[in-house]
Amino acid sequence: MTFVVCFWPMVKLTPLLPASISTADTIHYNGVLIRSLPMDGAPKSRATVSPSAGSYQGMVEISPRRTARVLVVDDSPQILPLMRELLNSRGYGVVTSANAEEAEAEILRELPDLILSDVIMPGKSGYELCRDFKSNPATRLIPFVLITGLSDRESKVKGIEAGADDFLNKPIFAEELFARVKSLLTLKEFTDELETADSVLCTLGLSVESRDPYTVGHCERLAKHAVALGQHLGLDDESLVALRRGGYLHDLGKIAVPDEILKKGANLTPREWEVMKQHPMTGENICKPLRSLRLVLPIIRHHHEHSDGSGYPDGLRKGEIPLLPRVLQVVDVYDALRTARPYKTALSHEQAAAAMRHEAERGLWDEELVAQFFAMLTELRQVA
Ligand SMILES: [Fe+2]
Hints:
Layout: E1 4-7, E2 26-29, E3 32-36, E4 69-73, H1 79-89, E5 93-97, H2 100-109, E6 114-118, H3 126-134, E7 144-148, H4 153-162, E8 166-169, E9 172-173, H5 174-210, H6 218-233, H7 237-249, H8 259-262, H9 270-276, H10 279-287, H11 297-302, H12 323-338, H13 349-362, H14 367-383
Parallel strand pairs: 1-3, 1-9, 4-5, 4-6, 6-7, 7-8
Antiparallel strand pairs: 2-3
The structure holds fe (ii) ion.
């Protein structure tokens, strides 16, 4: 495969390139044409690699906190060391794989921050690799760049459909490579920060749960069953993510409820009940600043509404309560009925089903969703 790497003139690649290689406009290395960009003045010092200094100019541009890790996937033995050298020159950590299968193994070892992949490779193509990564929740947020000599529209569309975040056309210009990598790693950093914020809030949700020993494991079960019900209903991926997060975050507002009220559980005084009823709004306010939790906010606020309007905090009626909180609510009620508390024993599956159907008829829960939930559980039991 012929591959062309272009970079600014005066780039020194001494650790990799033999001494015969010049810094002229066009040079060759082991059959790989390395062509410079047109001169537009002084060489860009950012692209300069100092082979002996041990530290390069322009290092650590992405994050002072840690070295970003770039995975380069290409079947060409000439390309991988060149890409490593170029990216190392900007302070990025680089791992390389000669094919998609190696890349998958590498990712299992440690997740990269960015993937640069050739398109046409023996075995699985770059398109297939990209599609696999983008359909995996563990890797879908890692920016994926397809490196291609194919510049026609059909190939681009194919890459976009596979989920690629960006493209690099061959020949690769070093400055273009650096600009794309920097931009995508900055985006990844923001995503990581949002994920970290989500994780912190989910951990807070779990800490609320841990204050009551009788509810341990409730959030995790809720997240799992709410996603299963969402899948059973055919909801989209974004809604499923919101349901999973809702499982952990729905009761986050209880962080502001004192222990003596939270652990009492039943027979609350009117004053204590008023404090308890604040938790959906408190939780919503905590999560409101995070745009990534946009779909979770209705779950947090409305998971105690009832179809007959007797719920809280807004007294919404059937038809006014959004779908996602109704989904989580059904799962939440089932889990509560099936779990022993100081003031009640755990019901069997059949008892819980009968109780929920009765309460749905009375106007507490969504009758259709209750029916769908038990149909799903029946299906799952048959599969098991
Ligand atoms: Fe709640």
